[in-house]
């Protein structure tokens, strides 16, 4: 091994997986940090579960998608599988810990699905989920509303102000609508799933699927249209609350009352204006029992459909069941709808599947980080915010130069670095004994490092060195740097770093709260 | 499912794995953050690789321990295994990316080993590693010295000042010693592994193993003793540099010269006083080619053996091959020696095993976070620093009270929370419509939340509320809280939070830089 000529290995990552490095890894990390900080601000505590679970824990939770679960080989002992999401492990943990009757937990980790990967579409077999869930028995809609406040804080802090909409609906309202329209019980699931396609298909196509493919009475379909095509806010809710037919149904009545509470609380939390009550939102997963929501952003189908341009486009596309753009946008994550970047809802019965005595109601949200990453990166590239696309965050590059017989000043560079590191300043230097000055400048430029610390023999002998801000234009008075006492290098550099950070775009939010829409 | 009485599931995590939650998860997160911040300060960039690799990538890298690798089931397609460490995936990535000739990368992630678990001893099948490695062709010992500077910064910032020692040796010196002592080539590996046990066994036992079990000539063993029992600093190195027999060996000479350079650089980095040149350090893994090092701390065998008490204890234990304490201390991580909390070295040939044309020298360090966590937690408990053992980091609990007919002020509490969240303050409130005041105080106390924000009907009508610092003693002038204008609640609370943080132990380092040793 290793003795042969040429590579003897198949040098690749497994199908549907990839390595993350450089500016991509750094940007994704900053998205994680932004999201985790919001979770902590709301009292979230971290839960970390094993990457694999006993296979029986996952069994019967994902319906047809169970075939996508990765199994571990039987090497003797327990039979295990890689986790498919973070929700089932959370429910398993709650069932296992009867002392915990309520918790706000967050979990940012990878999940695994043996789906057909499409890397250029962002559909991977290994991908991250960022989940926040509130478990416990509380007064109606209070934690539910806080979840949407969390959603709004995350996207505001990612700099998406004005570019996202939280679509909101309630499973009970939907069930009530289907009942009063006359959908037979056994057709509830397929009709609900057809309605859920309204974010990517016009009504005519959805109706066709209901009537032609699923055998629904055309009159029932027309009655459904009168409800599910509505979206709005309080005025829509008010009109539904006056609908006597609908309110005669116990499910619908309960759902509408909860929705009224929800809107009151969303207003108190200052997020009602980010929410669209969208009666076509149905959500795929079976385990939702109350409010359901999905976040869509610019360029995703749901938002486009709201704009007049998109409605025009929709009309001209009648009869086409899929548009290329929408196909591109599709997530590999069945918990997310088409074009959505976060999704969730209330699921009151999942914990009871593990431990009937430990029934604990839950409500939560899952952020699709891979898609948020792609949209964020594309915007940074479009707006040429290269600062946000650096490989590392180094503050200073310590370099030296000298004339003939120059010894490279390695130890002096090391001692300066030591001072900087001890002060918490991120610093690098060349690992060469005698690096050339242009090489050192090149290294600082390649790393987009904002400051060079330059050691020269004469200055050093006088106890001085030079701070040079990189990338200043020709003719700038400080183009050649500023001489400072080595004893005051740390505070001098800290002042300049603070100033640079203040003047420039510094936080991810600031970088992303751009000018273009 | 879920319809039966009683649990129908085996509610547990797989053997050798566990859930992390509450204060344990929070403390571990803070250790990760401390370590990652040091990595970034030295220009480290994140690399994230898939949790599983093609099986052939892992094959032939771990010798006998290969039997501990977890395999995925063959579900059609590629044959994969869970990663066993982070070093082999890094080497695979370097071999796959020929554009990258040099990099400082860090990786904090879980690895998997089907070892016999011993949970109360901290030996798990799923555990974290925190790795930093520098790849590239540079002048001798420069990156090697920076790695030890990183080691020292991590432990200083974890608050371990004066409580850890970096044991340092060089594979070439060891090879030279064995050669000049007369160890036959084919016995190099077993004799080296016997020497490595000197941190947990007295010389007499090691000698016995060499002579009786491995058939080494007793005279050769006695010559080895003259070398490997030495530990020290520059004075030891100087005496070895004068040893003509040793310097006649090319390996030893090269190793000693590199060690001299290393000590110069460690001095420039200000860490020479934390390093012990320990000639008995051999390290288990085969792939090391240059400097090797291991960090030991109080209570671990290596440090105890240096103290007079430990030497006494050692003598009285002669003949016993294992002490219970040492057994307790044993890591499940073969990259770590007994009692060590971090370990690493230079490995110049690993990348070439994947891609002979892409030979890239590397040097790195792996921190054993599970052991660092256990030691840190035990100390916090011993020193009763409960503040560092909270479940979450919430700043304020917003509560309300009122007389007869009190409506609970839910929306008012929500609005106050909204103000606090918008200002970045971590805040919680009761999810009950009409919570009782004692319940709300209890919730704040249980979460060790430092401030209560109290809303009363009369104060609210006057645009005011009360900030109450929790846990003030009876008789304190602010025991009942301080009334403030709601308009200035945010700055008032921020001032108090900043003051509390300043006065109290705030960072992990501050919490851990305790008084007891």
From TrEMBL, chains A, B:
SUPFAM superfamilies, alphabetized: Class II aaRS ABD-related, Class II aaRS and biotin synthetases
Cellular localisation: Cytoplasm
Entry-linked InterPro entries: aa-tRNA-synth_II (IPR006195), aa-tRNA-synth_II/BPL/LPL (IPR045864), Anticodon-bd (IPR004154), Anticodon-bd_dom_sf (IPR036621), HisRS-like_core (IPR041715), HisRS/HisZ (IPR004516), HisRS_anticodon (IPR033656)
GO process annotations (BP): histidyl-tRNA aminoacylation; mitochondrial translation
EC number(s) reported in the record: 6.1.1.21
Example of a GO cellular component annotation carried by this entry: mitochondrion
Keyword annotations: Aminoacyl-tRNA synthetase, ATP-binding, Cytoplasm, Ligase, Nucleotide-binding, Protein biosynthesis
Reaction(s) this enzyme catalyzes, per UniProt: tRNA(His) + L-histidine + ATP = L-histidyl-tRNA(His) + AMP + diphosphate + H(+)
Main location: cytoplasm
Domain Aminoacyl-transfer RNA synthetases class-II family profile: 16-372
Region Disordered: start-end pairs: 304-338
The organism's place on the tree of life at top rank: Eukaryota
Family assignment from sequence similarity: Belongs to the class-II aminoacyl-tRNA synthetase family.
Function comment: Catalyzes the aminoacylation of histidyl-tRNA in both the cytoplasm and the mitochondrion.
Protein name: Histidine--tRNA ligase, mitochondrial
Originating species: Penicillium rubens (strain ATCC 28089 / DSM 1075 / NRRL 1951 / Wisconsin 54-1255) (Penicillium chrysogenum)
